[in-house]
Amino acid sequence: MEIVHVPMGDRAYDIRIGSGVLARAGYRIKPFLKRPRVAVITDENVAALHLEAFKEALAVEGVSVISLTLPAGESTKSWSNLERCVEWLLEQRMERSDTVIAFGGGVIGDLVGFAAAITRRGVRFIQVPTTLLAQVDSSVGGKTAINSPAGKNLIGAFYQPAYVLADVDLLGTLTPRDFLAGYGEVVKYGLLGDLDFFEWLEKNGPALAAGDVGARIAAVKWSCQMKVDIVTRDETERGDRALLNLGHTFGHALEAATGYSDRLLHGEGVAIGCALAIELSARLGLCSQEDPSRVRAHLRQMGMKVDLADIPGEMPSAEALLDLMGQDKKVVAGQLRFILTRGIGHAFVTADVPPEEVLRLLKDELDRVA
Ligand SMILES: NC(=O)c1ccc[n+]([C@@H]2O[C@H](COP(=O)([O-])OP(=O)(O)OC[C@H]3O[C@@H](n4cnc5c(N)ncnc54)[C@H](O)[C@@H]3O)[C@@H](O)[C@H]2O)c1
Ligand SMILES: O=C(O)C(=O)C[C@@H](O)[C@H](O)[C@H](O)COP(=O)(O)O
Ligand SMILES: [Zn+2]
């Protein structure tokens, strides 16, 4: 069992990572409860596979459970599902000191975290992440949100969980595609701040995907620790936290362009976005010409999407993609900011990127699609 502590004063919390964690969830969660009753919100896939086991683990400690099951997929991060969650919590008479548990991937975590933040101006909230992406990234750090037709995660709040409980055994039921999408965020950590981690992934990525429990725990812990170090320096993204957005300026525009649909999962967009950010860095002379090919080679070795050509269906023009990037939350005074790199493990935030270079890169990439 591994623990990563998030030192945030009176909002400090622990992330507990291990195998067999779910079976002991009642024992772990009970100390947080003012009364032995929790509201669990999940999605249809997670409910079918793991909700009974989770309920039993809570029941053995005398904790009763009310649960709400939502449709699976990115389109669940919507106003209508936010309303559904909040109204359900109110109907169930959840008090401010009661606890809401997000039991699922990043979609459930982001939506339920936001619902918890605004219900009675903030009910206590615990994350039990069930995807690789949620265990390494979305359950930690307090970004919560839903999507708008105008762009990704544009409606939300910073709201930290009280606890995060990550059982890597749950990753065993993910589809290979969902597992690899989460791996996109794992690779991001190596690229943004730790060449040793990237090298470790080059060696251990295949074992991780094949189900090696030790490797999974190590990767989740490494990623969470990196995220915690950044988030505790800059909780609300005034500076360094934007590093965690490596690949996302491109990735979020691609998600919007593909309608937040099955055509492109978030982590897939992040992987393609990282490859584009590093290519852009090389074109601007910031990093070596070898870095983009090394990153692409690793993503390809893992069987991931790497290029715009890997996205099925029609893509909009380079100009339209650049326009979608204009809704990015890192925009200041109308100017886009990018996360670029001086080499693998050395990312930085900059507004000093000529839009014509971005356009040229996107055009070259789109030409390869045609
Ligand atoms: N808040 C943050 O800091 C942050 C960070 C990264 C990503 N995100 C958000 O996270 C979302 C993506 O999260 P995701 O990749 O977890 O997607 P997801 O929540 O849609 O889960 C992916 C799929 O896996 C299924 N699933 C979940 N757990 C399962 C399990 N154990 N076994 C079998 N199937 C399971 C889900 O039902 C879904 O179909 C995006 O909306 C993204 O914006 C947020
Ligand atoms: O926690 C962060 O900060 C991140 O940027 C992590 C990202 O992986 C995540 O996708 C996040 O939701 C993106 O943030 P956004 O502010 O660009 O919506
Ligand atoms: Zn992300």
Automatic annotation (TrEMBL):
CDD domains: DHQS. It holds the Pfam family DHQ_synthase. Binds 1 divalent metal cation per subunit. Can use either Co(2+) or Zn(2+). It is an enzyme of class 4 (lyase). Belongs to the sugar phosphate cyclases superfamily. Dehydroquinate synthase family. NAD(+) binds at residues 106-110, 130-131, 143, 152. It catalyses: 7-phospho-2-dehydro-3-deoxy-D-arabino-heptonate = 3-dehydroquinate + phosphate. Residues 68-179 form the 3-dehydroquinate synthase N-terminal domain. Its cofactor is NAD(+); Co(2+); Zn(2+). SUPFAM superfamilies: Dehydroquinate synthase-like (SSF56796). Pathway: Metabolic intermediate biosynthesis; chorismate biosynthesis; chorismate from D-erythrose 4-phosphate and phosphoenolpyruvate: step 2/7. GO terms for molecular function: 3-dehydroquinate synthase activity; metal ion binding; nucleotide binding. It comes from Aliiruegeria lutimaris. One of its GO terms (biological process) is amino acid biosynthetic process. This is 3-dehydroquinate synthase. It is found in: Cytoplasm.
